[in-house]
Structure to design on (470 residues):
């Protein structure tokens, strides 16, 4: 009897080896390599052996040939359509990930119901819940009257056979890809082999039928989508649904999109009746700020192409510890350390003996360097005990020399600030023209900002203080 073919696959990165090892040489993870039975198709792809099927000759096209613009399926959820680039593209595959309980199933069920209400055929397949559980959620969301086809199944072959039994749907939601299994791969559901094979079969169905397929993916403890990274390369768009569970705000962020921009963000608010769209997130994030307290600065940021105003809060308190605390929520801790070092080395502001607490209000996470100036203003305000003006926004990048650098989209930031009633902005030099009703004040050096907020001499008389020289 012939020996059954097998291979060893790393469950963390999907690397294939011919023998077992305790540590994967590709990703460095320990105890992640497991033995899996390999079918002839998988062995052929892995070993590079010649296939029995003869290929066919393709007709080549030229790059300069006119092509029609990709059509869009508008779902009716404007924030979702914004992130996808104006709607779903027929035949596309989208992978959406997020922490457990963040609201992925709620968002997709509302999207499916909204699209079904517009007359499109929508199929929602769940592999984690029973149909009764999904129906109860739909009743709570007020979507139980929508004509969404619902099924609870984990077999990929059964799902595709069911979808092919009627007219091609406009949207197919698979919740989630880690629960599916296919007979092509002899492995447990959720393993690298099963996730890759299941995703490949569903993506092939999307391309052949013209249906848009959304795959829900679990995330790891590091926030990355679980399973092989090759799935992210296979799909047309990768979206992440993120937010702080202690806050009601949720952000849908696109990290890959072959049919639209990759930096768009949709803002939602979790309510008792599901997710509601936030048309003006700046006004919502600034709704409960205390304008009389020191240590609070308003940052005029950009989330994708959308300007967004958010409050940055800082607390500087004397410390009795040998190593003062540094706590950051919603911002990069390494960037905070850099700003603190520049404030102390270039501006002479004594912070090494103080505990530093920094938080972005509303549970939002900021990644762009333009927040440096707002963070510095909040730190200086808290250290000096002086409240910042309530109608002024801040944005700018700080260099290691203490200089303030210009950032892109200055006009969009100023227009958003002016729309919300802000009358001034502290900006880098050459940041752009003034917006109507929002006057700009340029600062070239971080020391200038210290002098402006705390003119009574908090800085030490050190060599190079307030100079910004190297």
């Amino acid at each position: 009897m012939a020996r059954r073919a097998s291979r060893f696959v790393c469950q963390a990165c999907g690397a294939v080896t011919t023998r077992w090892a305790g540590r994967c040489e590709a990703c460095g993870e320990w105890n992640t390599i497991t033995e899996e039975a390999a079918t002839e198709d998988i062995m052929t792809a892995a070993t590079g052996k010649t296939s029995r099927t003869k290929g066919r000759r393709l007709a080549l096209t030229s790059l300069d040939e006119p092509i029609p613009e990709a059509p869009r399926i508008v779902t009716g959820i404007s924030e979702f359509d914004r992130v996808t680039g104006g709607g779903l593209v027929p035949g596309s595959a989208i992978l959406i990930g997020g922490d457990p309980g963040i609201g992925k199933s709620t968002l997709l069920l509302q999207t499916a119901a909204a699209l079904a209400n517009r007359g499109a055929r929508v199929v929602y397949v769940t592999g984690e819940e029973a149909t009764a559980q999904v129906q109860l959620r739909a009743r709570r969301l007020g979507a139980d009257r929508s004509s969404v086809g619902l099924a609870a199944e984990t077999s990929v072959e059964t799902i595709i056979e069911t979808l092919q039994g009627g007219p091609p749907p406009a949207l197919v939601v698979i919740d989630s890809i880690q629960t599916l299994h296919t007979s092509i791969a002899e492995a447990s559901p959720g393993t690298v082999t099963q996730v890759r094979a299941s995703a490949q079969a569903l993506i092939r169905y999307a391309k052949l039928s013209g249906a848009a397929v959304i795959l829900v993916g679990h995330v790891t403890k590091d926030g990355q989508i679980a399973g092989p990274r090759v799935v992210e390369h296979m799909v047309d768009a990768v979206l992440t649904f993120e937010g702080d569970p202690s806050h009601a705000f949720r952000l849908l962020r696109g990290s890959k999109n072959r049919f639209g921009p990759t930096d768009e963000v949709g803002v939602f608010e979790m309510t008792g009746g599901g997710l509601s769209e936030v048309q003006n997130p700046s006004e919502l994030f600034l709704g409960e700020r205390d304008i009389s307290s020191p240590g609070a600065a308003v940052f005029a940021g950009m989330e994708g192409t959308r300007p967004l105003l958010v409050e940055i809060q800082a607390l500087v308190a004397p410390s009795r510890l040998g190593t003062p605390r540094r706590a950051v929520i919603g911002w990069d801790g390494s960037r905070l350390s850099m700003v603190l070092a520049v404030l102390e080395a270039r501006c002479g502001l004594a912070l090494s003996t103080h505990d530093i607490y920094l938080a972005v209000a509303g549970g939002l996470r900021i990644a762009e360097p333009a927040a440096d100036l707002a963070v510095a203003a909040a730190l200086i305000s808290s250290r000096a005990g002086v409240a910042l003006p309530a109608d002024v926004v801040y944005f700018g990048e700080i260099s290691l020399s203490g200089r303030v650098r210009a950032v892109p989209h200055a006009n969009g930031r100023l227009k958003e600030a002016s729309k919300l009633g802000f009358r001034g902005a502290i900006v880098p030099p050459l940041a752009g023209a003034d917006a109507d009703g929002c006057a700009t004040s340029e600062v070239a050096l971080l020391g200038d900002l210290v002098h402006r907020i705390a003119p009574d001499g908090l800085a030490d008389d050190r060599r190079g203080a307030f100079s910004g020289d190297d």
The chain is about 25% helix and 25% strand.
